[in-house]
# Entry
Amino acid sequence: MLTRASVSFAGRRLLHLSMCVLAGSLVLCCQALCQSPPSDTPPFPATNLVAKDTPDDDGGSITLSWTLSADDSGGKNDVIGYEVRRSKDPNGPFETVKSVSKGTSGVTDESKVENDAGYYYQVVTKDVGSETPSTVFGPIQAGVQWFNLGRLNTLIVTLIYITLLLYFIVQAKKGAKLFIRRIAGLDALEEAVGRATEMGKPILYVPGISTISDVATIASLNILSGVARTVAEYDTRIIVPNYDPIVMTVAQEVVREGFLAAGKPEAYNEQDVFYVTSSQFPFVAAVDGIMVRERPATNLFIGMFFAESLILAETGASTGAIQIAGTDAVAQLPFFIAACDYTLIGEELYAASAYLSRAPLLLGSLKGQDWMKMFLIGCILIGLITLNAGYDGFKSLFDIPLTIFR
Amino acid sequence: MTGMELFWAWVAAYLTLSIYSFLYKDNVFYKIAEHLVVGVSVGYIFTINWFQGLHPYLFEPLSKSGEEPINLLRLIPFALGLLFLLRISRKYNWLSRFTIALVMGIGCGTAIPYTIEARLIEQTKASMINLFDQPSLWAGVCSFIILAGTIATLVFFFFSKEHKGVLGGTARVGVVFIMVGFGASFGYTVMARVSLLIGRLNFLINDWGKGTYHFIFG
Amino acid sequence: MRRQVPLLICFVAGIVMLAQSFIPPLTWFYTNALAWARIIACIALFIGLISLVRLHTTKIKRKSANWQFSMITLCALGYMMLAGLLTRYGFFIWLHGKCVSGSTGDGFVTVLENAFNFQDIFLNVQIPIQATMFSLLAFYIASAAFRAFRARTLEATLLLIAATIVMLGRVPIGQMIPGISEITTWILDVPNTAAKRGIMIGVGLGMTSTALKIMLGIERTYLGMKD
Amino acid sequence: MSFWRFLLRMDRRIVFILVALAVIAPLIAPLNLPISVSKPVRNLHRAVDQVPAGGRPILVSVDYDPSTVPELRPMTLAVLRHCLKRGVPVIVLNLYPTGSGLARDAVETVGKEFPGSSYGKDYVYMGYKPGVTLVMMGIGEDFHDTFPTDGYGRQSSDLEMLNGVKNYDDIALMIDFTGSAAYEAWIMFAHQKYGCDVGAGVTAVMASDAYPYLNSGQLVGLLGGLSGAAEYEQLIDWPGNATIGMDAQSVVHILIIILIALGNIAYFATRRQGQTAQAAGRERAGGS
# Structure
């Protein structure tokens, strides 16, 4: 039932008014119309209207596309926009489901589209004084897809990665020998805790200013667990101000367990792991206050940070504390590098848990990460070679969403 | 400027100067401002949470309003939230883990495909460049440098092998790229930060200073 | 029960979320999970409130250092919560006025809305303090550069040279040096892009692997080690 | 203690004072550092400069809101000053409610600076008018129909300079200051439809989006961000807030570079004096 509009309106192009009307609010332009209707000829219609079920979704949606009217950005250039109209009957009546500005050649209709009902569509080209409908397209049905083909490449990469990780985790479980390179910032952790003990001063641990669903926060809490244990062994006090209540709860749990593991549960003070506020700069103001008043010997800023990174690190530096930072926020790394003694850069943050605990399972996953890196570098190189040899098919496998099946 | 506006301008100016006094050293003005803003911000967040979180997401779906049917499913997160509140109980605080586990699971499960798409696939694709299809020879060279730098930086993050030999050399090139990139970001940010300071000074001079002057002298 | 059930919940929730991104009919879970997480986060704030109030009341009770200031926090908190709740719908009117019609939203302003100066306090206490804290960066960026940018090693030298060139290339006085703008653009576009991309991919790998380890229960410190 | 060693141990508060001075000093005593003027700014300046004094007015639309004031207000003032200085009449209007106070403030500020010019003869403020594109079209049909009164409620017909203004034909140049895409609408209506020359002042972030219009000649000139405003101030020889702002930026940037340089010289000088790396390595500029 593919009907395509291909009507010529050449004879109607008598007047050539150099009018140009902005793609602004259609409503406003309609008001203009009410006030002083300018004399006008109807614009050329939109052509080649095609509607199809929106791919890779759970139904309730139809995607339309058309060729712009000859008077849109060309011809008289007086089109102000298009109205998409829909009906269950090819003869109408049609109801408007969407209005778009000029220069738009496609929309997705999601307004109460019933699955498996046949719809007819029409696109109406509007200018200030008149409108021209396109030919009707239909019927078309919206449906449910059971697999998102556009994400097939994501699924494959995910599966490859998971397989690599699991393989090396299993190898590690079997007792394979695993090496891990030095990470200076983590080597310094114990020294930093020791220093605080010597000086009889506390340690400050800021687990970032994000929520628990941020993986960087989780990585930080894993490091906190190692730090808490060392701290307990050294009989030092640890202060953990929090930005998020759920993170605080987990931090309390983690620190308590650390003291328990070190055999000193009585030394744990729940009020040292506390909530401050979930507002960025008020939080920073409070942590700055803690740094200058409690004068911790060591400051650890590990997790997700934003612009406040440098405020924290510079205030900490002014108190003479040893500072170790770690974040995957690329924009903040330069400031931590400048103001802290050691900085865990990006992926090092995620490797920390394995590094500190040396748990074989975690070390295994690190090896999996490295293999995935090699896989990606390999992909880049293959892509580079094929692309420069004039074949872009390999690169298109990395399109998001994947379009090769469409 | 009305008298009330002038009053608030003075409050804001006083607090602004209190914060700046911290640059000299910690003092009573800073402490007041700091403690005040912690209280105010939590109170504000509480209100926002209530009216823009609990109200539309929990109270409204559970009460009959408008055409939407009652969404009893919302009782599940409500119950989980209550379990989380058991944190304060010594005996039942372990129940809060159910909630934490759920939130963590949702977070991790959502993060995996999203991260793989945005950080792995997209970036890998962006690295595949046609070196010869460039506006100039120099542009081609630059594209190649970006590519080499990306790979070298990635090599720096190899953990399971000692950084010696070729691997070590490449990793060192990666460090060079990282440091130049960080230096550039640092230098680039200065202007934005100075603008913030200019903005505050403008407030002090124009809104507060001149505002007060005009209020008194007309 | 105390360990296995949470691990199972985490695993199932993770798998469902993972699956929904590939199977369109499951997106229902995602939409709901977002709302659920939001509700839980809102309720969790009460725990934060309790922690905050406990901390400060303890300070006051024990008369520990700076306990007087804790009273300020508690008073401000109490007042804002009360004012916020009492002006409930007025608050929305205010927001509407601010967001939709801007400074001329006087028509929406009711007596109820600002009966307790809720938004005045927000706008004239919290906002200026936030903006001023933020602007401290102008000072700190200078002191950090002065202290840290020393040509001790090759890496540090590169860092400081790149920073210096870009700083020069950003301001009119520096742009008078011939070629500086071009070099600045080049540094920002070429080595900077390469480094960021490499770090991004690495971070992506680390994040995914950590997320997976949490789901599988390999990384379970968040639950505590023993029970 | 040698100068270099003093530098290495310098209290960071000295750095803070220097930064504060570097920002405040240009506010008190403007340095007016030379600014190289870019072509789009020069073009807009020329366009304004070529409008004959006392003839057809220039139409200025102030369409920004408080968030973009730091960048857009200085350029608005600079252009208004240029007009009044030259005796070119200006019509100021405003299409977005959030900017009405700002537009009025700009007109009144500049108006006060030119006691010789008078309201209604040399400049008028037409106030906020809802409808955006509707207003733009309305001016093309009949200015007085669109604006029966000015921003203070006076009858437009009573304002001398508006007597000869019927539509865009009677407007020499239109300039839009905006943090949004409003300038595109002005191009479409004032320029494309009614053939009036259009210039624009936008934020630094948006400037790159506006360049294509410049190349196609749809914009006669463009001011981008604080630096664009500073360049315009340079051209009219009237250093204002933008020049001061750019002065402050230049001074702070140079200050930081000098500090870095001094720090390094000090570092190497003290090392040569036989300082152990340990002593130099652990220096902290932090006082207290």
Remarks:
- The first strand of chain A starts at residue 47 and ends at 53.
- The CA atoms of residues 202 and 237 of chain A lie 5 Å apart.
- Chain A touches chain B through 62 residues (CB under 8 Å).
- Residues 1-39 of chain A have pLDDT under 50 and may be disordered.
